[in-house]
Amino acid sequence: VQLQASGGGLVQAGGSLRLSCAASGRTLVRYSMGWFRQAPGKEREFVAAVVWDGRRTIYVDSVKGRFTISRDNAGNTVYLQMNSLKPEDTAVYYCTADEKYRAGRHAGDYTYWGQGTLVTVSS
Fold first, then answer.
1. 3-state DSSP of 32-63
2. CB of 50 within 8 A of CB of 78?
């Protein structure tokens, strides 16, 4: 499966962005999906994940209540709605997929990775 992330950009603190991850090659119906991010000079960090059927979602504590992961299996797309953005959310965001029914927090839990999309939050 090929993943294409989009929707990044420059936004002021307190603003919102919605990232999209479109899949091609296979349907996403049987894939758990995740978002990770990597800020300059830092390691890649887990952000959010959702299982096949959307029944379970998990988030890193720093984004709980601000970010929402969702999926449109019919449209083969996963979204990350980001509200109340902070400068510390600035990073390249990556979408990921794996065939196992789990919402993993570790990069090793995912097999497929898309290219990143840059999110910059100005103060």
1. EEEEEEECCCCCCEEEEEECCCCCCEEECHHH
2. yes
Q: Is the pLDDT of residue 30 over 90?
A: no
Question: SS3 string of 9-30?
Answer: EEEECCCCEEEEEEEECCCCCC
pLDDT band (50, 70, 90) for residue 29: confident
For residue 35, pLDDT beyond 90 = yes
Amino acid at 13: A
First to last CA, the chain: 37
Q: Could you give the CA distance from residue 39 to residue 76 in angstroms, rounded to a whole number?
A: 27
For residues 5 and 117, is the Cβ–Cβ distance under 8 A? yes
Distances (CA, A) of 121 to 47, 91, 105: 16, 9, 24
